[in-house]
Amino acid sequence: MNVELFAPELTLTACAIIVILLDFVINRKGLLAAVSIAGIVISAGFTIALWGSSSQAIFNNMLVVDNFALFFKLLFLGTAAMLILASVDYVSKFARFQGEYYALILLSTLGMMLMAATTELISIYVALELTSISLYVLVGFLKDPKSTEASLKYLLLGAVASAVLLYGMALVFGFTGKTQLGEIAQAIQAMSPQAPLASPALLLGIVLLVAGFGFKIAAVPFQMWVPDVYEGAPTPITAYLSVASKAAGFAIILRVFNSAFGLPNWLSLDWGLIFAVLAAIGMTLGNVVAIPQSNIKRMLGYSSIAQAGYLMVGLATVGFSPAADTLGQSGLIFFLASYALTNVGAFIAIIAISNKVNSDLIEDYSGMGKRAPLLALALTLCLVSLTGVPPTAGFMAKFYIFNGAVQHGLLWLVIIAVINSVISAYYYFRVAKVMWLGKPASEEKVPSSGALRVALSLSCLGVLLLGIVPSSVIRLAELAAKMLIP
């Protein structure tokens, strides 16, 4: 094996170890964030250097290095870097554990990078657990009653979801005798059309895989953990869960279902219909329940459930489209990139504001347009993008993914999605109304660190660029999607 093919992951592992060791010997804990960022930058450099090369399998075909995996690795690394920058002020809440905090973010990012690259059921499970265990700990980092409850709830429900996922994998293995995704696909295609129907094990295994992965992406009806965990977790970790963890879940779903169950067509139509129904229910439930929320983190938690519904429109499109058609995959990948920039930007602004007002209640954001106009403007831009209004990344993402769905006979699902986008405008714009038209509780300004302002500026710039000139990122998404043709 060529070591350079695994260099991004090795770099991140080494950086996490260095951060833990440095935490023992240095007093200036701010250096830990700098070292973490440096490790992420080096890892990203190795990742970019691998872009465009032919697909190569490593570790006995357990992992693959291709444009699809590299695209998501860059997405995870970029998200982690921005949230570490945004955490520079926030870590004062747990000053004694800064080394562990940064190291766990790096290790969870490592797990997500492996999830995007893995092509074998056992390695999928190992990568998912590496990610999940790190996140279980990070959610409880504040050590107050809410944070502890959120961590425990996430751990218990996550363990159940992992067991369901593992049982689904066992059924697929029992039916095909294979754990490598390409070999599973070959085994299914080599059977007679009646064989899968005669044994319900494969179909049940697929349903259990949907359930296990559905927990990861906060899809209905596996979303029960979201509002409490989002509210109780440290705000940077809430952002990380809503963006990176969700993107990792969709990356592995795309890989598994496209590579292992993309053919025969009747099978892909079956799981495509499952995702279409879950998308319709998820976006409706998420948006309706978000309306009465008074806590902005809980509101964005239900918003995240709705956004998972929009994203599953892309999964349904993949199931309904011919195997060689990558419109659904590329639309979903572009949506994930747009959503990552938008939601990270929203949460970074929330981190700065909540640090000052010491509250996550929407009513306490009253008059923030006068106290912190730039923060309020950034948060408003991100909320507009989440709604899907031009000229933002959210509009282009929804247009792209809905266009693909319409072309493959899912007009009914797109109509439901558009109606839900209109519903979501109510609670997104309500926050903007409170910030710009509400009376400020005081005239005191809201301070923020230079690192946080850099991260916020980058995310807002990305939201505008992807809304105005999205062609370059769309092209990258199309190149990544081509790697998934079974």
Spell out the key features of this protein.
single chain; 486 residues; mainly alpha; two-stranded antiparallel sheet; 20 helices; globular
In short:
By secondary structure, the chain is mainly α.
Textual characterization of the structure:
This protein is mainly α and 486 residues long. It has a domain at 262-486. It is 77% helix and 1% strand. The protein has helices spanning 7-25, 30-50, 67-90, 98-117, 121-139, 145-176, 181-190, 194-198, 201-216, 226-232, 235-261, 265-290, 296-320, 327-357, 368-371, 373-387, 393-407, 411-437, 450-468, 471-482, and strands spanning 56-58, 63-65. Strand 1 (56-58) and strand 2 form a beta hairpin. The longest helix is centred in the first third of the chain and has 32 residues, at 145-176. The protein is globular, with a radius of gyration of 21 Å.
Low-confidence stretches: none
Spatial order of the strands forming the largest sheet: 1-2
Mean pLDDT: 89
CA distance, first residue to last residue: 24 Å
Quick one: how many beta strands? 2
- Sheet/helix structural class: mainly alpha
The helix fraction, in percent, is over 70%
Explain the layout of strands and helices.
Layout: H1 7-25, H2 30-50, E1 56-58, E2 63-65, H3 67-90, H4 98-117, H5 121-139, H6 145-176, H7 181-190, H8 194-198, H9 201-216, H10 226-232, H11 235-261, H12 265-290, H13 296-320, H14 327-357, H15 368-371, H16 373-387, H17 393-407, H18 411-437, H19 450-468, H20 471-482
Antiparallel strand pairs: 1-2
Helix pairs in contact: 1-2, 1-4, 2-3, 2-4, 3-4, 3-11, 3-14, 3-19, 3-20, 4-5, 4-11, 5-6, 5-11, 6-9, 6-10, 7-11, 9-11, 10-11, 10-13, 11-13, 11-14, 12-13, 12-18, 13-14, 13-17, 13-18, 14-16, 14-17, 14-19, 14-20, 16-18, 16-19, 17-18, 17-19
